[in-house]
Amino acid sequence: MLALQTTPYGAITPLLPGIVRDLGLADSRVGLITGAFTAGLLPACLALMLIRRPISDILVVFVGLGFLAVGCLTFAQASSLPILLAGRLAMGFGSGLCFAGASRWLVKSAPGQEGLFFGLSWGMLSVGTAVGPAAGAAAIALGSPFVHNVLTATFAACLAVLALIAMSPQMRQMARTRTVGPHIAVATLLRKRTFLIALTPLIVPALAIGLLFTLVPLLLAADGQEQWIAAIFIAAAVIGAGAGPVAGVVVRGVGERTTIVVTMAATTVLFASLAWPIGPLHLAIATIVILGIINQLLAVAAGETTRRTGTELGAPDTSSIFVPLMFALFETAGAVFSTRAAAVHAALPFIAVAAVAVATGALTARAMPRKRERDDRDSVVVQPF
């Protein structure tokens, strides 16, 4: 489920230059197409936060798959920008529900190994992101409606399979465990400084995804290298699929703080270099490294920090909702801002992300405890209220 729900997001990447030509869009509006998917995540996350009763993870995934199927079907029939955006919004809404339900379902299946399984969940997201550009490349050859209709049938089949699986005694027992929902005290958490600091490192990988998935296809098409778009993003996703579980082990070993500070420094250097790229090869290599390796480390470290901090504050399920919420906000911002800023100056969006990485790295180094300090703190037995 985690792999499938990101497939439609990546499928748009090879199609962007063709959509721009077919609909006669200005480059500054292309970010709307990429950002519409992540904008759909917002109401999904907010709905899970505001619902008054806890609900089953399986039910959340089931509803999410339904929205993904409807979104793909709408996109397949789209002949104008508003219908296309409506399809992308529905896909994003379904993706947000699937991520919240499936990631929590996966993490709670192995108590004590949350960091490793959180990394595994990000690896599975990368698998889906690899399938997405491949589907987009197929859509160029076979037609976008055909490929999105196939995706619709795939999600419908997953719904049927999930319904059959849910009938088993083991799954019925799991369905009674209701963990996604309103027991997260949202207002209380957002007033906690430690929780806000834990969320901050999620900004940079989200901005990076929104920017790179929007600008890189346009830059490669402008250089006459449109045929390499799918291959670059597939390579990044394949590497990310392997890097996700490894990132979980690395973060558990060296600590979230060290991982975030080092990767923020690497992000700064790479985005600063992309402000004035040497050529398509430089653009391709930097994109693969950022999406395939650095973003995996950042997302796992920041996500694990969010989960642990939320647990300490009495809300153990925060990562299943706040992580996709942060990605929804800042991927959308990265996609829309990147094309607008690039219209002013081509280097501006890359410099902006590099500056955010510097600020985030500095904040993390100053405010987040080192692994040894945290371990010492966690070893103290705290009496309950």
Automatic annotation (TrEMBL):
Entry's transmembrane regions: 30-51, 58-77, 83-103, 115-140, 146-166, 195-222, 228-251, 258-276, 282-301, 321-338, 344-365
Key words, A-Z: Membrane, Transmembrane, Transmembrane helix, Transport
Principal cellular location given in the protein's record: membrane
Domain Major facilitator superfamily (MFS) profile: 1-372
InterPro entries assigned to the protein according to its UniProt record, in alphabetical order: MFS, MFS_dom, MFS_trans_sf, MFS_Vesicular_Transporter, Tet-R_TetA/multi-R_MdtG-like
Gene3D superfamilies named in the record: MFS general substrate transporter like domains
Membrane-topology descriptor: Multi-pass membrane protein
PROSITE patterns hit by this protein: MFS
Name of this chain's protein: MFS transporter
Biological source species: Rhodococcus jostii
